[in-house]
Amino acid sequence: MRDGPSLTLAVPCRTDEPALARTLGAARAALPAGEGASVELLVCINGPDPLASAARAGKPLAWNVLRCHARAPVAIFFDADVSFAPDAFRLLLAALAAAPGAVLASGKTTCAPRPRAFERIMAAPYGVDFPNLSAQLYAARLDTLPAAMPEDLIEPERWLELIVGRERVVRVPEARVAVRLPATLADFCRQRVRIEMGKVQLAREYPALAGRGAPQPRTRAALTSLDAADAVRLAAYLGMRSLAHVVAWWRYRRGATAGIWRQAATTKRWDPA
Fold first, then answer.
1. What are phi and psi of 139, to 5 degrees?
2. Which of 32, 86, 107, 156 could potentially form a cystine with 175 if both were Cys, beta carbons 3.0 to 4.6 Å apart?
3. Residue 145: CA atoms inside 13 Å, Cβ hemisphere, count?
4. Residue 229 Rama label (left phi>0; alpha psi -120 to 50; beta)
């Protein structure tokens, strides 16, 4: 009989995260029947802390700690500010078990927009089927993961997906995880510039990984897959994203990466309005 847990729930969490309790409640409800007694929960709190001057921000730091301390053969990594369906964990674990050669089983990131015009624009890209590893929810075989990831990564899940390679990633679109969207232009800029800067970093620092990801949908195909209103919103979003990429490229080239992990506060609010 194997000692230790059969499943690790691994949660990177900021020091100023307001939604952790609700997310852990959803995680408990999503545990497959019979798993509750053999699950370990690891939450790594990291980021700026006025009581700890040496504390550092960044998701890769938390991921490395979680990877080091996890004791189960399989872990489910999920963000501390998301919502997911009760069957999401079961679907991920089943997909991983059915694919012995897979390292990662990825959920599908969706969104929970509030009824506002700006958030309808923010929601437009979620109508396109992107084949990337969900940064918010995935299961992993721990013995086949990298022992650690570089601590300066800005988009750690994209790096992880490329290191593992698309052949060893199983997509489980039925395992859905929902995020809140930026409700203001300022929060969009904070979030999107960081994501675009992560792309710039990977292209400049890890060019050999470029061909290891799944092919991305073309812009024209993405636009034609939507109805007219959503296509217009997506076009507006893509224009904003292009501007964010220019800013990210300029900042990264200058080494201006300080504050890149600053929180987009409106993405943390799960109030109904």
1. -105, 150
2. 107
3. 25
4. alpha
| CA–CA gap between residue 163 and residue 157 (Å, rounded) | 10
156: amino acid identity, one letter: P
77: CB partners within 8 A, 6+ apart: 10, 11, 12, 63, 66, 137, 138, 139, 140
User: Cα(243)–Cα(189) distance, rounded to whole angstroms?
Assistant: 9
Separation CA 254–CA 244 (nearest Å): 15
Give residue for tokens 């999401």.
88
Q: Which of 260, 146, 243, 137 is nearest to 198 (CA)?
A: 260
| Tokens of residue 116, six digits | 């506002």
Distance CA(167)–CA(248), nearest Å, equals 30
User: What element of type H or E holds 9?
Assistant: strand 7-14
| Rounded CA separation 186/209 (Å) | 31
pLDDT (tens digit, 0 to 9) for every residue of the chain, 273 residues total? 457 788 999 999 888 788 888 899 989 888 877 655 689 999 998 765 544 434 456 899 999 999 999 999 999 999 999 998 889 999 999 999 999 999 999 999 999 999 999 999 999 999 888 889 999 999 999 999 999 999 999 999 999 999 999 999 999 999 999 999 999 999 999 999 999 999 999 999 999 998 888 877 777 777 777 788 888 998 899 999 999 999 999 999 999 888 888 888 899 887 654
Beta bridge partners of 176: 108
Among 136, 110, 154, 124, smallest CA distance to 219 is for: 124
Beta bridge pairs of residue 10: 42, 77
pTM score: 0.90
